[in-house]
Amino acid sequence: MIKVLKNLIIVMFSIITIYVLVAGSFSIVKNMGEQETAVAQTEQNTILPQIAQGSIEDVTIPDIITEDVELDSVEDVNNFNENETKNIEVDKFLYNQLSDDEKYIYNAFVKNKEEMKTGTAVVELGDYFTNMLKSKNGDTTELRTCYQTAVEAYTYDNPDVFYLEPTKMFLTVSTTRFSDGNTEFNVNISNGNADNYLIEEFNSKEEVDSALNEIEKVKNYIAQHRSDNDYDNIKNVHDFLINTIDYDESISQENIYNVYGALVNKLCVCEGYAKAYKYLLEEATGVQCIIVVGTGINDKGQTERHAWNYVLCDNEWYAVDTTWDDPIVRGGGKATNEDKTRYFMKKGRDFNNTHKMETRFTDEGKDFQFPDIG
Known about the structure:
Radius of gyration: 24 Å
Number of helices: 11
Mean pLDDT: 84
Structural class: alpha+beta
Shape: elongated
CATH architecture of the largest domain: Roll
Helix content: 25-40%
């Protein structure tokens, strides 16, 4: 058998590359981010490089819209009650690292979550940021950083808001100048000049609710099979994802970056795997799970953008990469159990040589603190 394979390889290298890729050799190709290459193999496998682009979706906010208003006297320009937003209680991994100003914006998302499904609801922040903007003479740089960080924290803490498109969520600052010299800044979040701030695949609240209903069915299935043991839940959800999801090698299908693509369409890239893992573990089993982004280094020494998870088990954090544990099999072969657990429940000494975490989701956001996995 070995001689046959060697002879086949010699013949394959004598013809053009495309025939190499379609010949009958048995291969496993790992799902990774950009320039993805397999790192796991059995004795019978020939490992071929897997090239893919765009594994991490952009969450950068658009430019702030500014408006000027002139009024004769100081008066309430709206009936907004900022205490309703301030007093919202949230206990999420990224939220707990935010400043009070960043939490205020995050809380506004929580407060208006149902209305935001329309993609056109205006989220009022009132005059909360007046003192900040006055101290900066109206410069919005600090406010923009707060907003960017709040958007990142909200979307990565809550994978179920997959339908929001941050690049279409405009922050509008209205500067009201009164005749007595007083200035007030009122801020809101809206769709600005876009039709809505939903992702392209959804156009109405009805479509969003229908999608969420399908996701809920998967969550309820996992919850029905929930174990009292955290490790079992971590392993069962890991296995469920790699057994039901296919990796989108084309990077062209809809919803490949979110939980809908992963759990309903069953087709996604690494960010979809990571978000689905967090969503199911936390919402269906109660196990704490966070999304980590950074780069992966494949066995060819190539570096690509990538996403994975940290999970909490028995008061210790471990790394899990469901994407790299989900091999693509070519030529009719079968992946081994070792292939499917190579990046499961790993400590840093076994994981960080191929995965490099980044503490920022975007250049415009803040550095977050992540657990030490040893």
